[in-house]
Amino acid sequence: MPVHLGALLTAMVTPFDGDLHVDEAGAVALMHHLLDHGSDGLVVCGTTGEAATLSDEEQLGLIELAVRETRGKGTVVAGVGSNDTRHAVHLTERATEIGPDALLSVNPYYNRPSRRGIVRHYEEVTRATNLPIVLYNIPQRTGADLPNDLLAELAQLENIVAVKQANPANLAKIDGLQVYAGNDDLLADVLDLGEPGGIMVASHLFGEEMHRMVDEPERRREIDESLRDVYRDLAVAPLACSVKTALNLLGFPAGIPRLPYVELDERETETIRALLERHGLLQTARA
Description:
Largest sheet: 8 strands, parallel, barrel
CATH topology: TIM Barrel
Helix content: 40-55%
Number of domains: 1
Order of helices and strands: EHEHEHEHEHHEEHEHHHHH
Number of helices: 12
CATH class: Alpha Beta
Radius of gyration: 18 Å
Shape: globular
Strand order of the largest sheet: 1-2-3-4-5-6-7-8
Number of strands: 8
Structural class: alpha/beta
CATH architecture: Alpha-Beta Barrel
């Protein structure tokens, strides 16, 4: 059964304070800003949220914070993936108790399990929740692709309802699954397929503009083309680092990333600054 998570979800960064602790006040401010500026929902504790560097306590605390602060205003999808099935099950169970709208579960990374291992992994994960599960296919990070026939097989498992697709070579409709764009530059293509939308990063900065691709299909390609330089320049560094720099320049307390991510150097920062100036955002930064 289709689940309605919204068309434009932002994979939110995790703000840290000067001591690299989670900045809860900064996170709440960013959540409300995103939901006020084009996002239908939030994905917390995903890749862009630096989940790999969060303790379980921090991760579950952020999920709880998002659910409490945004309930009724936007949807919350909680990242609960792990390359250890027992750990993924634990996070899934704990997050389910908190009650987000859905869970995001990446296939096991680094281990590179066989196809049967991937199916067994998700069999265990699905037993641990009654919430909708969004799969996440991002082979450039996991080292293993989820081909569309495997995604269709996984769709037969209880609660698996959608996939965040970050492999453009696999972009197609899939029996039993909704498809969400997993890369900013795939949003227009996914919408043209008649699928719900995307889990985006550039929407931290251009949420309203990106939502216009949903609302104004006749101008979708024009809008997408106008944002191509955004997608290109944000990729000057890992997206969590680039977006944090952009948000800091705009006056939001995003803080710096945790190692192994590092702050942008002078050249990279200038690329982000020029991007914001070119699109007129620095002139409209919040007071």
